[in-house]
Amino acid sequence: MASPRLETYCCPNRDAATQLVMNFQPEVFCGVCIASASVNLLLTILQLLPKKGQSLRKMPKASSSSTILLLISICDIFGGLGMIFRSSVWLGFPDFIANISVVNKTDVWPSAFCVGSAMWIQLLYSAGFWWLFCYAVDSYLVVRRSAGLSTIVLYHMMTWGLAVMLCAEGITLLYYPSLSSCENGLEHAIPHYVTTYAPLLLVLVVNPILFRRTVAAVASLLKGRQGIYTENERRLGTEIQIRFFKIMLVFIICWSSNIINESLLFYLEMQPDINEMPLKNIRSAALITWIIMGVLNPMQGFLFTLAFYGWTGWRVDLKWRKREIPWESLSSSTVGENAYPSPVNYQSNIHDSKKISTTDSQQTDEAISMLSEGNTSGDDRLTRSSPIYQGW
């Protein structure tokens, strides 16, 4: 799982609260992390692989939203791999891990492994948080017709730049001036915890606001397409709203235990003796949420694919043919015909392109389909009238 306690455990003089959770059934905890991360890894890859029975279509460039969704899944996959590697070393080499607790200037590999693996996990999941924030921003900008494939470069700069900067800053402040002196006072620990949880809290607070405004803008777009707001438009708007709700629900389920656990551990740190009997229930709650974190944090990747695309099925098609991948945007066919013409399909689609009455209507359909990509149902009238959904 992803917790700043992983980095603080690398300090030989770690605080009592960190010692409590990290020494609680470490074999069981590492086994839980390996099992959860492995299941998530297999199911996420299964979700993203092309499936048999999908209709053959051209492969135009994806939309910025579909690219962001894929990058979120990739961050979860590599973050899960980091958990599997770290937990496997902990289980397989207990003597190697025991040297972390000893200030040994001749053997730096245990501390290097501890710091490196913890930073890898934190960096990947932090980047996933920033990508999820970019998805909410992009969804709003798409509806406002202010986003496109060109903005993905800005998202890359912001996501990886902020993730690396905050991770490096937090680790530097935590371990300054050396591992042997880290955790000596809150001035070392607090900046590290702030830089770790800042992107998580940003998604929890800002994403629901952006999603709510996006849904309101979608309703205005659907109504303005023909001047009326029919049952089909209302149904499509509801599906987009439900999709955003699923995304936030998965995020809250997977990471609320981290916030609860950290609050309990901070409360224990403020006590003179965390082993006092009146604090027994607090200790038990902290240990329970610690195990829950090991289960839920790695499962975020698979649960997100369910929220993004739904269940894509078991029948995997591994043949090297040009099949549409599950994360491809439903609007990408229209984008490919107009903004990024294909040498093979451009001529055959000229006739279909002439059927579009106005450019505004086409842009509206593109924006809405980007938000509803992956849905198997939608606006029946849009399916009949728009080339976005032809052949689907």
Report on this model:
With 392 residues, this protein is mainly α. The protein has a single domain (4-50, 64-309), classed as Rhopdopsin 7-helix transmembrane proteins, CATH 1.20.1070.10. 68% of the residues lie in helices and 0% in strands. The chain has 15 helices and no strands. It has helices spanning 5-8, 16-22, 26-48, 64-92, 94-98, 109-143, 151-175, 186-226, 231-269, 280-296, 300-309, 332-338, 350-353, 359-371, 380-385. α3 (26-48) packs antiparallel against α4 (64-92) and α8 (186-226) crosses α14 (359-371). It starts with a helix and ends in a 7-residue tail after the last helix. Residues 55-61, 322-359 and 376-392 have low confidence and may be disordered. InterPro entries: GPR143. It is a multi-pass membrane protein.
